[in-house]
Amino acid sequence: MRVYNFSAGPAQLPLPVLERAASELTDWSGSGMSVLEVSHRGKDFVACAADAEATLRRVMGVPEDYRVLFLQGGATAQFAGIPLNLTAPGDTVAYLNTGQWSAKAVEQARAYDLDVVVVADEAASSYTTTPEEGSFSVPQDARYLHYTPNETIGGVEFGYVPDAGDVALVADASSTILSRPLDVSRYGLIYAGAQKNMGPSGLCVVIVREDLLGRARTTTPVVLDYTRMSAADSMLNTPPTFAVYLLGLIAHWLEDNGGLEAMGERNRAKAELLYGAVDASDFYTNPVQERSRSWMNVPFTLADPALDADFLLGAQAAGLTNLKGHRSVGGMRASIYNAMPIEGVQALVDYMTDFEATRA
Amino acid sequence: MRVYNFSAGPAQLPLPVLERAASELTDWSGSGMSVLEVSHRGKDFVACAADAEATLRRVMGVPEDYRVLFLQGGATAQFAGIPLNLTAPGDTVAYLNTGQWSAKAVEQARAYDLDVVVVADEAASSYTTTPEEGSFSVPQDARYLHYTPNETIGGVEFGYVPDAGDVALVADASSTILSRPLDVSRYGLIYAGAQKNMGPSGLCVVIVREDLLGRARTTTPVVLDYTRMSAADSMLNTPPTFAVYLLGLIAHWLEDNGGLEAMGERNRAKAELLYGAVDASDFYTNPVQERSRSWMNVPFTLADPALDADFLLGAQAAGLTNLKGHRSVGGMRASIYNAMPIEGVQALVDYMTDFEATRA
Fold first, then answer.
1. Which residues of A are catalytic?
2. d(CA B133, nearest CA chain A) in Å
3. Are A37 and B13 in contact (CB under 8 A)?
4. Which residues form a coiled coil (chains A, B) (predicted)?
5. What is the DSSP-derived secondary structure letter of residue A35?
6. Whole-number Å distance between alpha carbons of A227 and A225
7. Where are the beta strands (DSSP E) in A242-352?
8. Which residue of chain B has the CA closest to A80?
9. Which of A11, A300, B61, B252 places its Cα 20 to 30 Å from the Cα of B97?
């Protein structure tokens, strides 16, 4: 008996992927071993990892002059990895601050003797907005412009790719990657924790343009050194093998279901359905500026917060789980990643309508 | 049809653990969700992680003044994490070099502006020995003495706990942890990648004495900052949830099977059986000094290396897998971690005897 799971991450995964993983967890490909038990340097796992990378590249349309790295430590480790790999002490770097995750990235960068320029800061809006396109300017001596296309906590998303001029654009795409087509060539570096649209926690994918390699500081921990990791096919040390295997299964699931074009259409329809229900009611409110609304994470509040607990209890009973909002925002949050079918969003909307009718 | 899998890591896991994980991979504890899909901050997973830690503490007898951290990046990430957390620039640190893993730890430490003193170096023996007890002296102004109790590649193991005087003893226990009882109170810090005796790859357990916290350098990536990670119960960011869950299952499996005393007896018997067979034959040779032989990783060579490929093919056909030695050592390597039953070692010994009889 599966539920509709609106967790912000780790998040719902495609059922066929979980069923496949369960069916071969004690005997993978007739080897008599689990994929959890095989050497990362054995030919079977090397082929598995190569297939995961190749399929991800096809699905995303990653150009040939980009490397795809499978790292650990979540996106948070890359908050350090990015300045360590792309800058020297004294350099200038630029950040857009649109939420708690970009703020953490800024804070970590300040540890590395840099001139950290926050070129747009939406904190004053309690992170309910994104800067208007063209409203900020990027210092052209910056090593990179970092931004967070989708903020998981605030449910705030950029509706455009920022223009950084000649400066390398760096994106923490953890909660938006694979949700729709993306022009990778606009970016210098894209990174994403896997635990939303790509698989389980414990894997961070880094997609980096080759010309940005080769300048890591000597103090970079080797596991965060993109150049050394790239030269070793992400196997400088033991990678998180099970997470890489699941990423491959999910990339194939995406390909079998129409790729990112189809996924983008589904996700747009899901978001429109849910925001439509929120906007049609005086009982539910979404705090985010309309043009900045996330397709993936939809926070909403009830007119009377005293009803929050009842709302959550009833939702749980209806098979709709993990709807409690982030503690810093309150209310509810429905995360509707790729694996959430539109039927799940419809079930949530139906429940919201019923709850409002009986309790408002 | 399961095989006996002698992989050095990721390595064979207890079948009951894999069967349990497979049986609940789409519906964990009746939640309608996989353990892969739940928030690390939800009460179910928080309880799961707390139980994994508590069970590991019971099994190992970890004293109360030690913290247990669940980190990422493998032991290799801690090659940087240890100097970053325990030293200031200009400090002295001491290392015992007994193999490729300790050599990598030394190399990484040299990146952090330290006086790195290698107090014993076994490279001249091609890493087939450990220093004799009492044969080296540790500078008493060193911040720590680092050593590798068991070297996975060379199959070399310390038969004693080095005396570091008042200097904190730091151990990379990746390939020996949980293989027998260990007096944690002798150590300042013990760390281990999970993928040998503790679970899948992607999780690194750090056990650190509290008085060593609080001195991380400001340049420490936050995911490697033991003090901050400890304050956040290892959930400063999303932990590798599935690996933590499996660690808990394995800790319970250990407890249900007699704990580390029983495991130590089993492992001693397994090692004696295999070394006995090697020593009884002129056809097989183990290169390691007798008192330094590993219980976990047993390299051995055939008298005629031209027979290596046939040996491996026959072994595979007999359901004995992953016996090929590390490329730097050659020959064979049988890793016989906790999950390898003595029946598996007996099957290997029988196969070795047959092979010698027909091919020598």
1. 101, 172, 196
2. 31
3. yes
4. none
5. G
6. 6
7. 284-285, 297-302, 320-321, 332-335
8. B221
9. B61
Band of residue A285 on the pLDDT scale cut at 50, 70, 90: very high
Query: Cα separation of B61 and A331, whole Å?
Result: 43
**Domain spanning B16-256, CATH class:** alpha beta
How many angstroms away from the CA of B84 is the closest CA of chain A? Answer: 10
Active-site residue identified among B43, B115, B163, B172: B172
pLDDT on residue B120? 98
Distance from CA of B356 to the nearest CA of A (A): 26
The closest CB to that of A39, out of B8, B242, B243, belongs to B8
Annotated active-site residue in B27, B44, B65, B101: B101
Please check whether residue B270 is in contact with residue B340, taking contact to mean a CB–CB distance below 8 angstroms. Answer: yes
> How far apart (Å, rounded) are the C-alpha atoms in residues A354 and A342?
18
In Å, how far is A108's CA from the nearest CA of chain B? Answer: 7
Q: Is the peptide bond before A83 cis (omega within 30 degrees of 0)?
A: no
CA distance B285 to B279: 7
The full set of domain ranges for chain A reads 15-256, 259-359
Question: Does position B250 have pLDDT exceeding 90, yes or no?
Answer: yes
Contact (CB<8Å) A33/B12: yes
Q: Which CATH architecture fits A15-256? A: 3-Layer(aba) Sandwich (3.40)
CB-based contact, A185 to chain B, within 8 Å: no
Main-chain phi, psi angles of B31, to 5 degrees: -85, -15
Residue from the list B1, B21, B36 with its beta carbon closest to the beta carbon of A32: B1
In this structure, the number of other CB atoms found within 10 A of the CB of residue A262 comes to: 12
| Tokens of residue B106, six digits | 């030394």
Count chain A–chain B contacts defined by CB atoms under 8 A: 219
Q: Which residues, including other chains, have CB under 8 Å from residue A136's CB and lie 6 or more apart?
A: A96, A119, A120
Q: Is the bond into A10 cis (omega within 30 degrees of 0)?
A: yes
Residues of A in contact with B13 (CB under 8 A): 34, 36-37
Given the cut 0.85, state whether the ipTM is greater than it.
yes
A280 touches chain B (CB under 8 A): no
B354's tokens: 């047959």
Q: Are A172 and A146 in contact (CB under 8 A)?
A: yes
- What superfamily in CATH does domain A259-359 come from? Aspartate Aminotransferase, domain 1 (3.90.1150.10)
Q: What class does CATH assign to B4-9+259-359?
A: alpha beta
pLDDT in tens, B57-97: 999 999 999 999 999 999 999 999 999 999 999 999 999 99
Tell me, yes or no, if B285 comes closer than 8 A to chain A by beta carbon.
no
- CA-nearest residue to A110 within chain B is B219
Rounded-to-10 torsion of CA B144, B238, A105, A340? 160
Q: Does B239 touch chain A (CB under 8 A)?
A: yes
The answer to the question of whether B238 is labelled as a binding residue is yes
Instruction: Dump pLDDT digits (tens) for B128-168.
Output: 999 999 999 999 999 999 999 999 999 999 999 999 999 99
Asked whether this chain's domains B4-9+259-359 and B16-256 adopt the same fold, the reply is: no
B347 lies within 8 A of chain A by CB? no
Dihedral of CA atoms A345, B238, B77, A77 in degrees, nearest 10, equals 70
Two tokens, residue A318: 């209806």
Mean pLDDT computed over A86-109: 98
**B354 annotated active-site:** no
